[in-house]
Predict the structure.
Amino acid sequence: MVKAAPKCRIISRNGTGVDNVPIQTCIDNSIAVTNVPGGNAKVVAELALTLMVTVLRRERRVRAVHQVKALSPGLFGKVVGLVGMGDISYEVGKLVTAFGCQVVVFSPTSPPTRWTSSDAPYQTPLPHTRASSLEDLRQVDVVFLHCPLIDSTRNLIGEKELGWMKDTAVVVNTARGGIVDGRALEKALKAGKLGGAGAGCVCARAGVRRVFGRAERAGQ
């Protein structure tokens, strides 16, 4: 695109992520890159909450057969894990806290004062505990992924991490598909080693698309 538009001087993203913008090429060609941090935080947080409820309540099965084998689990008392501490994650944290959920956060690059009374950007402190590693996901009922897609987060959630989780755990990804290893997710869903998954984005693997298209444990 840059080569086809030699007079281009700015690429403006109507969103936060810039992983689909050739940053180095833009630097080399003196092209400014802008984004809108937090601009869609509330909307994406609402989507993430909707996906969580959809999967937990087995909404797809209810529509298909008009019955469920057991009572669907409620939200009160659930332990929610948030990966990342950006604006979207903060909004999700506020929503699930209102439902009586406990919040555990993994974000090794965020300062310890994040989301506390000392954190000026977030005027309202959010009750939470900090996880020291992804292995702490063992205790959570729902994992929300809210981190950028960079080299260190590509396939951040793979077979090992999914194996740490409860068989009843739900993974919700409204960030980037590449953060989750699609092959590992497909395997876990098919084997019943994961309670369910909801996505506002899907990785390129055709198998994962098929799983999300037909599996009772998946929602999209």
Remarks:
- Residues 133 and 141 are 16 Å apart (CA to CA).
- The longest helix spans residues 41-56.
